[in-house]
Amino acid sequence: MPRPSILVVFGTRPEAIKLFPVVRALAATPGLTVRTCVTAQHRALLDQVLRVADLRPDIDLDLMEPGQSLDRLTARLLTGLGEAMDRERPDWIVVQGDTATAMAAALAAYHRRVPVAHVEAGLRSGDTHHPWPEEVNRRIVASIARLHFAPTATAAAALARENVTTGVHVTGNTVVDALRWTRARIEAEPALVAGLDVHARRWAGKRLVLVTAHRRENLGGGMVAIARALVRIADRGDTHLLFPVHPNPAVGPVMDAIIGAHPAITRVPALDYPHFIRALGSCDLVLSDSGGVQEEAPALGKPVLVMRETTERPEGIAAGTARLVGADEDRIVHEVARLLDDRDAHDAMARAHSPFGDGQAAGRIAALIAGACRT
Ligand code: UDP
Q1: Are residues 95 and 242 in the same domain?
Q2: Distance from the CA of 137 to the CA of which of 11, 107, 111, 332 falls in 20 to 30 A?
């Protein structure tokens, strides 16, 4: 009997971070053939992770276009992935999360009656416009997938509310696997993260706030409010902000116009994953609208203020490590000041714990996929 063939499909930085542990675990599972297909929906950021994880994709569709609309991107993904599946003829498709790539891959697989395994299933904000369009992408994938790897019991319960109860497994989030693997690599090879050293003297002796901002919902007015808040925080004098800037062209120019060359704000291009993890481990608190950062910060005991009105990751809020502040200038400034000025408030949020996983999720997922291939 031929070995079952698993095609793992991804296209963006967060998917690559959360899937490289799964690819490794599948590759280590006897009796399976593992192939990887990248769409390169976000070329540069994806490549950063591929390098760090030493992952060479078997198929690279290289579908990124400058200024791509969601319609055009989705259409190209669907046809490109469908053609790749026709050539590969996989027995299973694995997708992660909520991107256009994950949604289009699930749909192309469904058109070919190929079963889909969904990593990070069941995240729901309950609002189809936040995060947009990810909330709907997730629901589409859930309606197609045969295996649903929910990171937490909360995520499994969200699936149950949509009557998705078969093939649901609570595995933990593979982001914790990626984080642990990367921290071990940094420990073995500290030179891997020496790139920030040239900047570090700028925040020596100061409190450090790590900032990321790129969500589609925050582009426009939200980014302006965030930029103004950053300037007010930097004006305190005792605090430095480190801001790796997402390459989305709607982010940089706003920051240039409002932040300019503020001496207490260091803007750098998006950091590769080990550098970002090092920065996360060194900062006092995190200000971010990212999904993945909401999961990583608690695992490192860093308070994270989430610049969104709602989150599909309520576990960090429930555990007290994350707090929603919206893209609201005054709220951001107020909450950052509270954490910087009130040690008890900071310490209450700064408890290291991992509501999202124990670092063993990828192994569980690989075993469940292997089991499904045998039935
Ligand atoms: N990240 C990174 N470099 C950076 C900023 C973030 O490697 O400069 C990582 C971060 O550790 C997290 C992931 O990128 O794992 C989050 O990706 P992003 O915020 O783009 O997407 P989201 O998680 O919101 O879908």
Answers
A1: no
A2: 332
